[in-house]
Amino acid sequence: MSVQPTENYQFETGVYRPPSEGGSFSLLVRFTRNCPWNRCGFCAMYKTEKFQLRPVPEIKADIDAIAALCNALTDSDGRVCQDAAVRLISRRPALNNHPGFAMVYHWLHAGGKTAFVQDANSMIMPTDALVEALGHLRHTFASIVRVTSYARSKTIAQKSPDELVAIHQAGLDRLHVGLESGDADLLKHIKKGVTPENHIKGGQMAMAAGFQLSEYWMPGLGGRQMWEQHARNTALVLNQINPHFIRSRPLNTVPGTPLCDDEAAGRLTMLTAHEQLRELKLMIQTLEVTSRVCFDHAANYWTDRRGNLLFTHSYEGYKFPEEKPKVLERIEQGLLTDNHRPSRLLL
User: Fold this and answer.
1) Is the same domain home to 229 and 261?
2) Which residue, of 122, 151, 180, is where some domain finishes?
3) Contact call for residues 187 and 227 (beta carbons, < 8 A)
4) Dihedral-angle region of residue 35 (phi above 0 means left; psi in -120 to 50 means alpha; beta otherwise)
5) 233 alpha carbon, distance to own chain's centre
6) Widest CA span of the chain, in angstroms?
7) Among candidates 334, 145, 53, which has minimal Cα distance to 326?
8) Low-confidence ranges of the chain (pLDDT < 50)
9) What are phi and psi of 266, to 5 degrees?
10) pTM as predicted
């Protein structure tokens, strides 16, 4: 890695990342702060925070500080050295409270292969600035083989095809997009700020530019009131995008959010786990894609008659259309069991 001599190990680390970029797998590098939209009715993540674009020199300084820390934690052969970490903390005790210190240490242990650009929508950055910051990240850490980020469909669609190609070529490989639903009425109700057409356009443009694309949808989002249109229209939108990954994130209402208020007032009747499987069955039956369909989150906890999870939580999921019959068969197994408990996780 390329780094200027420095012992300034101060850099920002955001809180949120997709599960597939978590644990020890990805270096978290903050290009923006918080969420520029911040109005979704199900989300409580950034509600008390203001969105900010970070200047490119500030981002580069963070990358350099991370690189300096990496150098301090590795031996002459580039291997992570626990003794070096102990000596560094004894010399710089403040690192004990540094939110990024353990993240960098474990990332190095995992091989330093992937990075996740934070926060909620890095694609909103001016293209030249994003390209410059990505270039510095890639130049500094030659070991990185994949860089990913959250993005909004509408933001992607507002870039030109040439801009998207430039961003991809600068080193951003995969986009994680919160589709949530493909139903126009439901998208409007949850204040997603996009239409099905926006989702389709943004998704298709991302695919055409060469990005790997993960689209997230939320079983249960429409409750009993809108479950059927939610399932069918979500599948129809995904059919037109045909992303690399389709990831299931079942709804769990969070106190203080509009959807939680809807539930308390009786405007939203949450689906039981059994009812979620009925919704999931319709969605999967309608789905005609060559994507990998994934259940890589703890909220996908439906079980079969033996109490085993219906679906693997692997980040690679099931390859469609080849494994579509297998997923439908697993859903049928779940529908035959006592999956009637409420679909709420105690987090």
Assistant:
1) yes
2) 151
3) no
4) beta
5) 22
6) 63
7) 334
8) 1-6, 340-347
9) 85, 5
10) 0.92
